[in-house]
Amino acid sequence: MTALPERFVERMKRTMEEEEAASFFASYDENAAHGLRLNPGKISRDGFTDRMPFSLTPVPWCPPGFYYNEEDRPGKHPYHAAGVYYIQEPSAMAVIEALKPEPGDRVLDLCAAPGGKSTHIAGYLGDRGLLVANEIHPTRVKALSENLERWGARNILVTNETPDRMAERFPAFFDKIVVDAPCSGEGMFRKLPEACEDWSEEKVAHCASMQTDILADAAKMLKPGGVMVYSTCTFAEDENERQIERFLAAHPEFSLDPVAQQEYFTPGKLEHTVRLWPHKLRGEGHFLARLRKSGDTEALETVQEEKVKPLSADVRRVFEAFCREALTFTPEGRYALFGDQLYLLADGLPRLNRLKISRAGWHLGTVKKGRFEPSHAMALALKPEEWKSGVDFSADSEEVLRYLRGETLFWDAAGKGWTIVTVDGFPLGWGKLVQGQLKNHYPKGLRML
Ligand SMILES: C[S@@+](CC[C@H](N)C(=O)[O-])C[C@H]1O[C@@H](n2cnc3c(N)ncnc32)[C@H](O)[C@@H]1O
Known about the structure:
This protein is of the alpha+beta class and about 450 residues long. It folds into 3 domains: about 5-295, 3-Layer(aba) Sandwich (Rossmann fold), CATH 3.40.50; about 305-385, Nuclear Transport Factor 2, Chain: A (Roll), CATH 3.10.450; about 390-449, Roll (Archaeosine Trna-guanine Transglycosylase, Chain: A, domain 4). The protein contains 14 helices and 23 strands. The protein has helices spanning about 5-15, 20-25, 45-50, 80, 95-100, 115-125, 140-150, 165-170, 195-200, 200-220, 240-250, 315-325, 375-380, 400-405, and strands at about 35-40, 55-60, 65-70, 85, 105-110, 130-135, 155-160, 175-180, 220-230, 255, 265, 275, 285-295, 335-340, 340-345, 355-360, 360-370, 370-375, 390-395, 410, 415-425, 425-435, 435-440. The strands form 4 sheets. Strands 5, 6, 7, 8, 9, 10, 11, 12, 13 and 16 form a 10-stranded mixed sheet that branches. A 5-stranded mixed sheet has the order 19-21-22-23-20. A 4-stranded antiparallel sheet has the order 2-3-1-4. Helix 8 packs parallel to helix 10. The protein binds S-adenosylmethionine. The site of S-adenosylmethionine has 17 residues, from helix 6 and helix 10. It holds the Pfam family RsmF_methylt_CI.
């Protein structure tokens, strides 16, 4: 059993019925459930259950979500490197199911790293709309970018800003916002026992005050008629129901909407909010509230579009030559060159000047010395009909492991030039065929040791 902080135990006993508390504390003797969520941009639900080599059972409140057995270790499988699924705690999957993004929406994930909610949103948007994924911590934003890259998300903007700077730049801009707030993490004590050492009553109070500020900034960025989901992985009422009560009192233009799939959850102590309790479902502790801003979503356009300089004739020539060689199409839209890095910007992207950007859109590659070198992000976002030359390895082959380790592979095929390397048809990265060798372009930082 996890050694829970004494003051936490006292508070939970004070706020729960005796029988309920006994069953709540008994849940700490059980193992945490493990979950993964399929990538609808890469595989259908039926295809997924047929093809995955793991034993999977559905997470009832999340159609793309499944429980897996820990011993299957899906995080080590080549399909993980290909972004076919994302490993996510099953209760955390309820958050974006409650937000329900739709293709074409502009969605903000304000506290986004490492990207569980962002990849879930990107799956629902598909190639239409815009996901702005923001993370305040510079080291965590790197993991967020990498996870969105592996997912194959194209229409994204990844920023590394504070919520108040974001609010200045995006007034009434988003159709949907998720605030998956930094919190005291009580709901993670079973899964991450080290979280117990970090906990204190002062931390609960500090998180509550931080959440009040974050929510106030998020409210400014939502369009009238828009929807915002607030979530935490803690049990403290001050960070949950009381937080939302304070928010509603300060923001009369907001009201609570019922949370979808609520039949699987427990009502919170504020009407329409829900709790996910570890003794009542297979997952860790969570709180969810779905808030709606009054008004009409078709309102004002508040932000100027990013103005981009057309690419120089030289850059366009080398990029188009690459597309003719390696792809069946030339990506359409607004290109932007940042230094020597070429991006395709998402539609409706606002002005980016003076924002700290980690990724401005779909990173296509690097233009250097009159040549174009495609990026890992381009490979992972390509669909099977979009590349010309591909080398496929099966998931249980020695070659796939050698590719992921960064080794050069020998190849007797006659082809030459840029080629996509796939595992059972899912892109893993680039290779270059040169005189019977497959030169490895799997990024050094991602290689398996
Ligand atoms: C619960 S985690 C987010 C998890 C993420 N949504 C996911 O699903 O992978 C909360 C995030 O808020 C960030 N954060 C911490 N302090 C913050 C602040 N003052 N404003 C905004 N975000 C903050 C943390 O760095 C952390 O990445």
